[in-house]
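[stage:ingest] chain + small molecule (pyridoxal-5'-phosphate)
[stage:ingest] validated
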Amino acid sequence: MIPYGRQSINQDDIDAVVEVLKSDFLTQGPQVPRFEKAVADYCGVAHALAVNSATSALHIACMALGIGEGDIVWTSPISFVASSNCALYCGAQVDFVDIDQFTGNMSISALKAKLESARQSNSLPKVVIPVHLSGFSCPMAEISELASHYGFRIIEDASHAIGGQYKGHPVGRCEYSDITVFSFHPVKIITTAEGGMALTQSDELAEKMSLLRSHGITRDESRMDEPPHGPWYYQQQALGFNYRMTELQAALGVSQMSRLDSFVESRQRLANRYDELLVNLPLTLPPRHQDVYSALHLYVVRLKLCKISLTHRQVFEELRAAEIGVNLHYIPIPMQPYYRRLGFSMDSLPQAAAYYSEAISLPLYSDLSEFKQDKVVQVLSSILERK
Ligand SMILES: *Cc1c(COP(=O)(O)O)cnc(C)c1O
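[stage:predict] done
[stage:export] tokens:
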């Protein structure tokens, strides 16, 4: 099976992890700050906090922004469930903004309309979480303008987007958001096996998230409310978690960071190749925009169903039967049983519903060979060209 995504691990990565195993620290040593500095420098952001997953990063990001009971958080229905679960962890209410039919990202016109009606019913969101689907940045300047106008804060779910750019600057710079979150799951652009990061330009938000990732505990004397009882002393100041990243993971992350640009270049090269090879098939190909350099976590095509005789499911099953490990990103979150039980439906999300009936993620990862890519194209062509 040619998988839809896969990590790229070389000898340097292996050596970096083995080195940590032989060292004094398996956790809470020098590698985590090194990894954080590498990402912060790359993105041009003041603070980067490594955690054990992007899900954890989203959770502490919501908490740092004060999300709690009675608050409302909006995100995209076409995302991984973690994008909205983070709000529910905090006891907040969540809702979904329909997507743009060309990018699959949260639609700006749908967002505007929903904000206007929320203002009238006094139910504006406190935080909006745009998701850069497939690594293709949302129009952050426009979302940020709406944030100033309607008074909400922004967390970018950039789980797909490290190494990508928006208006010529790295995603993660937080120019148009309060916090940006990356994931380092093995299918993402770089990996630490499990892992994530929360980035921010704000000292205050960084301090809050840093406390929350480690039990709410501080050893910083200047932040204590009484003098230390002795050299052993620490204080728990908030109800935090153990969301720490290990040294093994961070060392892998540092090593992977040195190849981030080449990973994205490979993905770009392969995506351009797909674009050329698939152009004559009854498919809508991934979006392009002058403001966006996509990290291309995913290569999602949409079937032009009126031009083929097979159903979406048949095309998908035939690809899998031919050992092409296609996937579907994503089942709309409101369609999940847990969300349906909370009362969600697809009624006001027609573009997300259409996307779900047409989308297929083709294999794309930095080590994908052109030979294997040709096989994907050949199998897909033969399926779609059949009458
Ligand atoms: C992968 C992913 C997450 C969760 O990442 P983990 O590191 O696995 O917790 C969140 N949001 C999106 C959009 C993702 O793709």
